[in-house]
Amino acid sequence: MLGKIVVGILGVTGAIGELYETLLKNHTHFKLGFIAASKKNVGKNRHGLTIHSIDDLPSAKKCGVKILFSGLHTEIAKIIEPIWGQDFLVISSSSAFRTEQQLILPEINGHQIQSARTGIFAKPNCTLHPIILPLAALVPLGIKRATVTTFQAVSGAGKTGLSAMDILDNVIPFIENEEEKIKKEFQLLLKKDIPLDITCCRVAVYDGHLVTMSVEFERKVSIEQVQDNLHQYTLFKVHHEHDRPQPRLDKDFKKGMGISIGRIRQGEGAVIQFVALAHNRIRGAAGTGIKLAEIAYGFEKPGL
Predict the structure, then answer these.
(1) 164 vs 160, 234, 289, 304, CA distance in Å?
(2) Residue range(s) defining the domain that contains residue 69
(3) In terms of domains, do 83 and 66 share one?
């Protein structure tokens, strides 16, 4: 394939759109050639590109765009993204399109987007990554059920999600609809009859979703067996220090695309406990969106 593939961003001034913009700079295979945002931003110049309206398909076609990375809010995405999906490959951040056919995680079912040139494909909830990816690696050991508590960074709530006064010196033990979304997406992706109990909390950390996990297996397994399964994949970094992983120290592992795991220890009976960490905006959002596009065009392979 000669030359770079031209891509665009819908919602370029939002938190996810801005990160897509950053990650696409000097990308090996993709060139940003089209950006769109709300009406108040249309016509403005942004890093050498003119901002278009989010329904300006003719301009996108004129620019030669093949892929749209969307950071549009769900209510807007429901209306706008299906229009784009008729002629372009759309990588959506919206929960509206996280169906069995459209919900894609590169390491779990990335084969479903291979060779796609049109249609909408949605990334999963950002918090699901440090939960489902380690569990997928441990499925061969026979998982019976998992119990999870999340400690989610404030950046996961978006630019206007929380005020500083709400989160400063605080932990909020509830995120609306989050637990339901994660449980649903977990089952859609993993396709295993593994009960998942989850409690979601928002904490005063800017980037990095950390989760504690208690995994019950069908029979007793050793710490060494768990470590051996995780070590099979370069996606994971297993820490042996007692106080790792930490968002400040470990969120940027593999340029923000890796999963850091630590405190692997034996629980009661056939239970193994551990802590996992992922960068919620890179691994959990824009980085995975770009990887999906790379898989679609054959630059990356799906799978763990």
Answers:
(1) 10, 36, 29, 37
(2) 5-124+284-296
(3) yes
